[in-house]
DNA sequence: TATGGCCTGTGG
DNA sequence: CCACAGGCCATA
């Protein structure tokens, strides 16, 4: 699921279902999470959840005592909220709240991670770039962040320290919208093309966000222009979509209308 | 920059 | 059986 729009949707969902309730119990349901989960989790028990907010691809669950639970979904994480104390399939962590509301971290691949920032602690210095949906992000700023990067633009978009929230699917989609060849060295992009790229990113993210309300488990894959469409006609020019490998990840693009 | 690791599931 | 999967980190 989780690039920026899916994480945003998940955060809104959890916030709507659980904010205002008090955390009663936490259980880790998989050895991998037991290993990596914060040992001091008990300090959060008894605190009221104030809000759930997205920060880049992280979610921050802020509690009334000042503690913050920080959750990253990685590849396959998601929330399921139930009124029954019965673990859904692939539930890896259980957060029991007042009023008989249960939040489950569902994550088939068990790559998701949970951290705790205790009250008063400074946010960890994992710097990320500007949020992909930051309305103040402009071409000059983004282009400056590309300036030292000779790597292909597709891979640079996946670097969260350059711009936060873009993942493998929406990087491909945004580049298709902007008509930019994913192999283009990032530093080569003109100001105009970076402007187009920002438009492509916003378009892609907003479209995906608009699919989030119903909390469908999967993003509407049928809305994608290039991702996973190898061998299918480009929606603009009918050229067959190509798939290449960049940095061990698949990239889909149109060889004709996406140019260097 | 490239590779392996984390984990499990799905589809060819 | 193998390839691959929407992310990220550690290592050489």
Characterization of the model:
With 260 residues, the chain is of the alpha+beta class. Helix content is 25%, strand content 22%. α1 packs parallel to α6 and α3 packs across α6. The model has no long low-confidence stretch (mean pLDDT 93). The structure holds a DNA duplex (12 and 12 nucleotides).
What does this entry show, briefly?
By secondary structure, the chain is an alpha+beta fold. It has 6 helices and 10 strands; from the N terminus they run H-E-H-E-E-E-E-E-E-E-H-H-H-H-E-E. Strand 2 (49-55) and strand 3 form a beta hairpin.
Shape: elongated
The proportion of residues forming helix, as a percent range, comes to: 25-40%
Q: Provide a count of the helices.
A: 6
Main pleated sheet:
4 strands, antiparallel
Salient structural properties:
260 residues; alpha+beta; DNA-binding
Topology:
Layout: H1 4-18, E1 23-28, H2 31-36, E2 49-55, E3 58-63, E4 68-72, E5 78-82, E6 91-97, E7 101-106, E8 113-117, H3 139-146, H4 153-157, H5 168-178, H6 191-210, E9 242-246, E10 249-253
Antiparallel strand pairs: 1-6, 2-3, 3-4, 4-8, 5-7, 6-7, 9-10
The protein binds a DNA duplex (12 and 12 nucleotides) through helix 5.
């Amino acid at each position: 699921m989780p690039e920026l729009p899916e994480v945003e949707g998940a955060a809104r969902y959890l916030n709507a279902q659980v904010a205002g309730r008090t955390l009663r119990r936490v259980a880790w349901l998989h050895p991998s999470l037991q290993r990596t989960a914060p040992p001091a989790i008990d300090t959060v028990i008894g605190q009221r959840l104030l809000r759930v907010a997205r920060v880049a691809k992280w979610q921050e669950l802020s509690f009334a005592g000042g503690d913050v639970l920080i959750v990253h979904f990685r590849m396959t994480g998601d929330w399921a909220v139930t009124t029954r104390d019965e673990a859904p399939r692939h539930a890896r962590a259980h957060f029991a709240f007042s009023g008989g509301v249960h939040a489950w971290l569902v994550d088939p691949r068990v790559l998701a991670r949970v951290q705790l920032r205790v009250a008063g602690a400074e946010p960890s210095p994992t710097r990320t770039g500007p949020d992909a949906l930051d309305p103040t992000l402009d071409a000059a700023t983004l282009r400056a962040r590309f300036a030292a990067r000779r790597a292909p633009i597709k891979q640079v978009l996946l670097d969260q320290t350059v711009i936060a929230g873009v993942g493998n699917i929406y990087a491909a989609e945004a580049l298709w919208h902007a008509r930019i060849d994913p192999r283009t060295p990032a530093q080569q992009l003109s100001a105009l093309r970076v402007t187009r790229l920002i438009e492509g990113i916003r378009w892609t993210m907003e479209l995906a966000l608009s699919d989030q309300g119903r909390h469908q488990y999967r993003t509407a894959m049928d809305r994608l222009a290039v991702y996973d469409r190898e061998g299918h006609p480009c929606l603009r020019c009918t050229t067959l979509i190509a798939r290449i490998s960049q940095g061990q990840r698949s990239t889909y693009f149109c060889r004709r209308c996406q140019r260097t």
